[in-house]
Design brief:
About 45% of the residues lie in helices and about 15% in strands. Helix 1 crosses helix 9 (about 230-240) and helix 4 (about 105-135) runs parallel beside helix 5 (about 155-170). With about 260 residues, it is α/β, with parallel strands linked by helices. It has a 7-stranded parallel beta sheet with strand order 3-2-1-4-5-6-7, with helices on both faces. The radius of gyration is 18 Å and the shape is globular.
Length: about 260
C-alpha cells in the first residue's frame, strides 16, 4: 500500500533507538524526510547511519538529526531553528522510572509531567496551526498501554501520560484541526523488546529477588501473542496513522499490545 506521504517532513523524538527508531525507520521507508531527535549524540549518529544504509529507503529521502533534550525549552528552540515546519510529528520521551509512589517528591512528579505531558503539548502547539494552513498534519504521541491498564510501579508514567491523553481527546476534536486534515492520535505500546522493558524488569528483579529471565518469561506468558512486540511492527502502525489513508482517525488511543489488555473498550 502506498501511504501517500513521500516527500513529507517528520519530526521524530526519542528516535535513536527503541520505538522512536522504529517509527523513524518506517517513515523513511515510505519516503518521508525525517529530523530525528535524542539526547545522546553517539547513539543518534549510529541511528542516522542505520537509516541511511537501509536498502528500503528511497534514495532521495533525507535523514537529519539534532542531539538535544526535547523536554527543555532550549531543546525545542534548537529543533525549530533547524527546521520550522513539519507535516508529521511523533512525540516520544523516555518514561519516568518505576518505583513506590511514597518515595516520589514534587520534583519527581514535575519532571514526569514535564517530559510526558507538557512537552508533547508544546510540540502540538508549535506545529498544528501551520499543518492546518497547509491542509495536512499528523501527530502521533507514543504513550503507554498503562493509560488503559495502569501498572502499580509506573505511577509517574500513569499520571503524566493520562493527563496528555485527556488533553488530546479534546484538542484533536476541534473542527479547526479535524476539518483541515490534521489528526492527533496516541499509540499505546504494551510490552515491546526495548531497553525500557529491560529496565523495568531489572527493577522488578531487584525488588523480588527473582532472576530477570524468569520475570521476562512470566511476562511473555501474560500476553496472548506469547511474545514481546518489535520496534519495527510498532513503527509500521505509526506510519499508517501518519498516512493519507488515516485522515478519518483522530483523537484515538490505539493499543499495540499483543492482546494483553483484557477489556472490551
Amino acid at each position: 500500500m502506498d501511504l501517500g506521504i513521500a516527500g513529507k517532513w517528520a519530526l521524530v523524538c526519542g528516535a535513536s533507538k527503541g520505538l522512536g527508531f522504529g517509527c523513524a525507520e518506517a517513515l523513511v521507508r515510505e519516503g518521508v524526510h525525517v529530523l530525528i531527535v535524542a539526547r545522546g549524540n553517539e547513539a543518534l549518529e549510529a541511528a542516522v547511519e542505520k537509516l541511511l544504509a537501509d536498502p528500503l529507503r528511497p534514495k532521495d529521502t533525507a535523514v537529519e538529526h539534532i542531539a538535544v533534550d526535547i523536554t527543555t525549552v532550549e531543546g525545542r528552540e534548537a529543533v525549530f531553528a533547524k527546521r520550522s515546519d513539519f507535516d508529521i510529528v511523533v512525540t516520544n520521551a523516555g518514561g519516568p522510572p518505576p518505583g513506590d509512589f511514597r518515595q516520589w517528591d514534587r520534583e519527581a512528579w514535575i519532571k514526569a509531567v514535564d517530559a510526558n505531558m507538557l512537552t508533547p503539548i508544546e510540540l502540538i502547539k508549535a506545529t498544528v496551526d501551520a499543518m492546518a494552513a497547509r491542509g495536512f498534519g499528523r501527530i502521533i504521541n507514543i504513550t503507554s498501554s498503562a493509560v488503559k491498564a495502569p501498572i502499580d510501579i509506573l505511577g509517574l508514567s500513569n499520571g503524566a501520560r493520562s493527563g496528555l491523553t485527556g488533553f488530546v481527546a479534546g484538542v484533536a476534536r476541534t473542527s479547526k484541526l479535524a476539518s483541515a486534515n490534521v489528526t492527533i492520535n496516541n499509540l499505546l505500546p504494551g510490552a515491546f523488546d526495548t531497553d525500557r522493558l529491560k529496565g523495568t524488569m531489572a527493577g522488578a528483579a531487584q525488588k523480588t529477588g527473582k532472576p530477570i529471565e524468569e520475570l521476562m518469561d512470566a511476562r511473555r506468558k501474560t500476553i496472548p501473542a506469547m511474545r514481546f512486540g518489535t520496534p519495527g511492527e510498532f513503527g509500521a502502525a505509526c506510519a499508517f496513522l501518519c498516512s493519507q489513508h488515516a485522515g478519518y482517525i483522530t483523537g484515538q488511543n490505539i493499543l499495540t499490545d499483543g492482546g494483553a489488555y483484557p477489556g472490551t473498550y
